[in-house]
Amino acid sequence: MQAGSYPSMIAMPRGGGSRDLFLKNSRDIEYAKQHGHRISTALFNVVICRMDMNGSRVGIVVGKRFGDAVSRNRAKRLFRELTRQVRDQLIPGHALVVFPKRDSIAQPFAVLKEVWLSALQRQRLLRMHEN
Hints:
Blueprint: H1 26-35, E1 37-40, E2 44-50, E3 57-60, H2 69-85, E4 94-100, H3 109-122
Parallel strand pairs: 3-4
Antiparallel strand pairs: 1-2, 2-4
């Protein structure tokens, strides 16, 4: 590499297409919390609310008492990825608000995914694949 030259910049993917998958507006999250029903698992709580929308959307709420910023961000990243993996299977017309528990970031991703899928299936929020 010559002096004064810079390595070429690599564009990183931004996870396109998931903007409509997540609840960002606090008004929508508050509505779901007020009108939905809560289910609890060992690793997270989730509030499920029927809404008039084309697809289902997921909000992830991690308060300061969860831990430091690194822990809170890790929990949000994990649950965003779990949501992206079931995006095509979610039954439309629901808002889900997820409240991760501290133990969720200590678990292997496979365990967290199993609990996530199990909770969604129990609530009949996933389409079953026809093979």
